[in-house]
Amino acid sequence: MAKNTSSSAFRKIDVDQYNEDNYKEDDCGESQSPPVGPDEKEIINFINQYPFNKNTFKNIEALKTVLRNAPISSRNQMVKDAALNVVMQVLLSMKSSQIEEAVNALDRDHLDILMKYIYRGFETPSEGSSGQLLAWHEKVHAVAGVGCIVRVLTDKKRV
């Protein structure tokens, strides 16, 4: 049998702090570092530096550079939109035969970021982009598996 105690120590815990309606995002990482990602000048220099129609190696390096500089932790929507435009330009400029080689050249973190951009590209389709993005999605899924999709859909940090 349980003993009847007059202890009320258990009542000192504020259970309301664990309520999901009172959730507050962590701002500590954002306040310490400025938003990462290419600004408008970097995007223009990037486009001029990598001619997308020359060869596969330049396309893969362009993709790696864009994914490395993705503004994931930024709250500035204009920076994220500008980065999306560059990523979409790189993705749509690659031929279907180059997609598998490009995906195989990326590591797991870059594949997750790429999948985030693919889903973001699905949100705002342009002429002919949906078919190309589906091809990218298929190749990324083949390499990274379902775990990549789950990580992207459950991650709070958006691109």
Automatic annotation (TrEMBL):
Region annotation Disordered: where it falls in the sequence: 1-39
Residues of the signal peptide: none
Pfam family, one: P16-Arc
One of the record's GO cellular component terms: Arp2/3 protein complex
Domain of life: Eukaryota
Family, as annotated: Belongs to the ARPC5 family.
InterPro entries (UniProt xref): ARPC5, ARPC5_sf
UniProt subcellular location: Cytoplasm, Cytoskeleton
Protein function: Functions as component of the Arp2/3 complex which is involved in regulation of actin polymerization and together with an activating nucleation-promoting factor (NPF) mediates the formation of branched actin networks. Arp2/3 complex plays a critical role in the control of cell morphogenesis via the modulation of cell polarity development.
Basic and acidic residues composition-biased segments: 11-26
Protein name: Actin-related protein 2/3 complex subunit 5
Gene: EOG090X0HLA
Coiled coil stretches, renumbered: none
